[in-house]
Fold:
Amino acid sequence: MGITERREREREEVRRKILDAARDLFEKEGYDKVTMRRIAEAIEYSPTTIYLHFEDKDDLVRALCNEDFARLLEALSLIPPAADPIESIRQLGRAYVGFAVNNPNHFRFMFMSTHHKDEAHTPEDPGWRSFGALLDAVKRAVAAGSFKPVDPLTAAQVLWMSVHGVACALITMPPEQWPHGAAASDLVDQVIENGIRGLLARPAKG
Structure:
């Protein structure tokens, strides 16, 4: 390994330490209470080292969010393509909740932490592309006549909010805290079907 490659590897290792320490501190202490100096102390580096990798705390948070949304996009991308757009919507919903349940700390940071995001999102952002998978499926369902002639973006937002709500509940509420009993074993599927049912062009049979 040459000098350049070694230095790049060492730089990436330091960057990884910074990101891991920042995520841990943000989760434990909250965004507002954590400073760049606090992160530097956690990994026993000088604050100057942190600024060699990230412009400021918001830049660091953006990097963390991009990593997490990239993980979500990867999870959604593993879904086999379905010819039926409604089946695609079902699969995306299950995968979304599955990602939340399997990665609760990442999911909390992505959606349930207070941090500043002043920049506009772009079509290249993994978060944008993740939602785009659902939006594309809804557009296909409308074009095929399976869904009512609704605005696809609004419909996709409604479907997302449904599964997002159940995902948040499943990772934050212990079974004993659910009202009148633990969540139903098929709760996720029921939530997904309920959202789809309201958009169908024709009433579901059965």
About this structure: The mean pLDDT is 89. The radius of gyration is 21 Å. The longest helix spans residues 3-29. DSSP finds nine helices and no strands in the chain.
